Amino acid sequence: MQQNFIKCKITRNIRDLYSYNIWRNDILYDCLKYNIGKDKLFIKILTKDEGLYFKSIKGTLNHILAADILWYLRLFERKEIEISSKKFNINEVSNLWISEDFESFLDHEDGIEWFKIIENNHRAMNNIYLESINGLIEEENFEFYNQDFIYYDTKGDKKTRQRYMCFLHVINHSTHHLGQITAILSRNKVKNYPEIDLSYTFDN
């Protein structure tokens, strides 16, 4: 009984963590959309090469979404997924890590149109994660995240990992790159970028 309670608690903790992930993504995209609406030239801050590992905020947002998609497909053992009427194949997404060309992952010649695409796809991906997690809770499938699973990394090497730890990586990965994005916004004197630390969710 105690063991089942712990497994149930872990799954619900995962839901809470991902709800936090959605909250911080939502307020960041709301901030960026507000600034674009206020000043069309703001998009240049998002597309400018700022010396980040993935060059720009654009490249970094694309990278976060690509990683979220890749890990979702791995965690739920799927080959492809449809998001906002676009299909993403696990092999095609994996190849991004070889080319490191994340700026072209989701792209448009018009920067504002690119932003609409990344925002819609990222919000939709977040909802897919949450719906899948809630589905496991409704089914009382509390074994899922405690099980090991097999996947192939972007180099083609076979890996065996616990789902729970890989899920934590998804959250931590976003935290790492969102910190880079807010640092660039601060450096560009964007005054209204949001506080996205976990503690700020306690009053929501």
Gist of the model:
The protein is mainly alpha-helical. Helices cover 60% and strands 9% of the residues. Strand 1 and strand 2 form a beta hairpin.
Specify the CATH homologous superfamily.
dinb family like domain
How many helices? The count is 7
Give a quick account of the main beta sheet: strands, pairing sense, barrel closure.
Answer: 2 strands, antiparallel
Nearest-integer average pLDDT: 92
Question: Any guess at the CATH architecture?
Answer: Up-down Bundle
The overall number of domains is 1
**Coarse shape:** globular
The secondary-structure element order is HHHEEHHHEEH
Number of E-type strands: 4
CATH-defined topology: Four Helix Bundle (Hemerythrin (Met), subunit A)
- Give the spatial strand order of the biggest sheet: 1-2
Instruction: Please report which band the strand proportion falls in: under 5%, 5-15%, 15-25%, 25-35%, 35-45% or over 45%.
Output: 5-15%
Fraction of residues in helices?
55-70%
Low-pLDDT stretches are none
Cα-to-Cα separation, first versus last residue: 33 Å
Radius of gyration from the CA trace?
18 Å
Assigned CATH class: Mainly Alpha
Computed structural class: mainly alpha
